[in-house]
Amino acid sequence: MSIYTKEGRLFIVLGCFFVANAIVAEFIGIKIFTVEGTLGLPPLDMTIFGFENLSFNMSAGILNWPIVFIMTDIINEYYGKKGVKFLSFLAIFLIGYAFLVVGLAIWVKPADFWSENNGFDMNLAFNSVFGQSLWNIFGSITAFLIGQLVDVGIFHRIKKYTGERMLWLRATGSTVVSQMVDSFVVTFILFYWNPNFAWTFDRVLAIASVGYFYKFLIAVLITPVLYIVHRIIDAYLGKELSQKMVAEATEK
């Protein structure tokens, strides 16, 4: 596949969006925001597994994961399992590389005039924002990889029975299942197996359930966007090339 062909250029564009959003999500994920507060709504104060006052307090990394969902399904549709797996492993490698560079940036000694800025410790702020723990890195990367592999497997299993029909079923179906895996894996790694927290099983299960419900809702709501992107790509590729790529992706 040459970069000078339509399918080659499309793969580069989709891959760049996929990898860039995966990396950005890792770095902004340190911030926890309230969904209800952002929308101007009161906290839901849910009770799950006996734990009260649970609300949608989410990692900011969730903001651009819908784009990763869409990119995963579109790449699946046109480039098959190999395309998604290649970009998933590439994203994980580059996330690891990015964290190594950030670690180096944290390690180097800051200049005094920069660190002491109007009485504000810039170096402390920098280290606090970018210095995520190894458990966060391990948990997010592990959950991301497992979730992607589950997504691509379910996507093609559904497509095997539906053919090119019912894009919404294979796209949304694979996403809601893979995100369930992703949500529970990352939450249990960070809060159940991590000795710094060691929360009870029920508490972690409740927190993971809240996160998954939010992701499930987003996956359903963005389904129309998937169709819009699909039509734009079909228009760019042309009917004949588009159908050829979709057919070949099923076999890859």
TrEMBL record:
GO annotations of cellular component type: plasma membrane
Pfam families (alphabetical): Vut_1
Keyword flag Phosphoprotein: no
Domain of life of the organism encoding this protein: Bacteria
InterPro entries: YhhQ
Main location: membrane
Keywords for this protein: Cell membrane, Membrane, Transmembrane, Transmembrane helix, Transport
Residues that span the membrane, as ranges: 12-34, 54-75, 87-108, 134-155, 167-193, 205-229
Membrane topology qualifier: Multi-pass membrane protein
Cellular location(s): Cell membrane
A GO molecular function held by the record: transmembrane transporter activity
Function of the protein: Involved in the import of queuosine (Q) precursors, required for Q precursor salvage.
HAMAP family: Q_prec_transport
PANTHER family associated with the record: QUEUOSINE PRECURSOR TRANSPORTER-RELATED
Family that this chain belongs to: Belongs to the vitamin uptake transporter (VUT/ECF) (TC 2.A.88) family. Q precursor transporter subfamily.
NCBIfam families for this protein: queuosine precursor transporter
Protein name: Probable queuosine precursor transporter
